[in-house]
Every structure is written in C-alpha cells, then in structure tokens.
Design brief:
17 strands; mainly beta; RibonucZ/Hydroxyglut_hydro; Metallo-beta-lactamase, Chain A; 6-stranded mixed β-sheet; MBLAC1
Amino acid sequence: RTAPLGSLTIPGPLYSVRVLQAGYSSPNPDGSCRADGSVTLVWGGPLTVLVDTGGPWLRPQLPGLLASQGVSPSDVTHVIVTHGHSDHAGNLNLFPEATLLLGFDLSRGRGLYLPHGLASGAALELHPGHLRVTPTPGHTRAHVSLVALGTTLGTVAVAGDAFEHGEDEEEWAALSEDPPEQRRSRQALVATADVIVPGHGEPFRVVREWGQ
C-alpha cells in the first residue's frame, strides 16, 4: 500500500487493528463477576490474525463481528490466544484451519505442533517487521501479547490480561499468578507500545513523560 505525498510516494500502513469487542468485567455483590475478554482483529496484510476469541457465550455473535470487517472465520490465518482462561479461549473450534497459538502451544492444521522460543523469552515473528508475538508472563505463566508495528496508531500491543484495563493499577496484582513477573511484562509493553488493547476494557494510548 502507498499513500501520495505531493510528488513523493511513501509506504502506508500494512495492517489495521480493530477491537471487535472491548472486554469487560463487572463484579457482583455476591462475589461473582460477569466478564468477557477483548477480541481484536489485525488484518490488511498477508496474515489475518484474531487475538482472543471471547468466551463460549460469544460464539453466536463472533462470525457477525468478523463479517462487519469483511472477514469470515475461514479467512483467519492465525488465532493468537493470550492465555488459557475461558473468557479468552472459548471459540477456537470456529477456526480449525488457522495456525493457533494458545499461550506457549503453537499448532497448525490437524494437531501439528511447532517449535518456538516463547517459553525461554524469545519473540515469535509472525510477519517480520510488522507482527510479532512476545511472551508477557505474569497473569498466567504462559501469557503472550501480539505487537503490531507501523499501524496508523503507531505500535499497538494487544495485551490480553497483562493489563485488565487502563486504570487497573490497584487491581491487576490480585488476579496475577506472578505479580513481579507481570509488572516486568507491563513495563516492557509500556516502553514499546503507543496504544495498548487490554483484556477487559477499551484501548488506551500510552502517555510518556517528556524525555522518556
């Protein structure tokens, strides 16, 4: 893709990011909680990537959410599930032909599992220079985030529950398997991303102090 600029032609962004469902979490007086995870589509280049699939209760709506962007379940080439909780991994059967990353398990087709270095801290390059999966352990030990570079919003991190929402500083540690590790993951995402899509809230822009 290109965008004209006077007599020059400069590359335009390859991938777009659209939050199909912003996640939510609402506690009830009896201690229960009604929640579902954010569902995000990254498309426009050679890969069509869905990050998290919501809970199984979203299944009737998910094909329509994809169709609103001109995408069918069979168009999805990769499904990245940030972690294995039911509100993020509830609809994998809609995408039997997609390459699937669930936490640190990477599979393709009929159960072919592929090697990678996520568990040892190495990123997985889905489309070098454009899309990468980075390990962001803490909320669960096999938690990942998708980082999309060079979008119209800059670098977008689809962060699962590394961030619950944009104002979660007093909340996230109580939900974490490893709070010190998750704090490091959060700091790494904030250091690189311009926009973060959290697991249970609206996307938010990262604001840095002058000189940072």
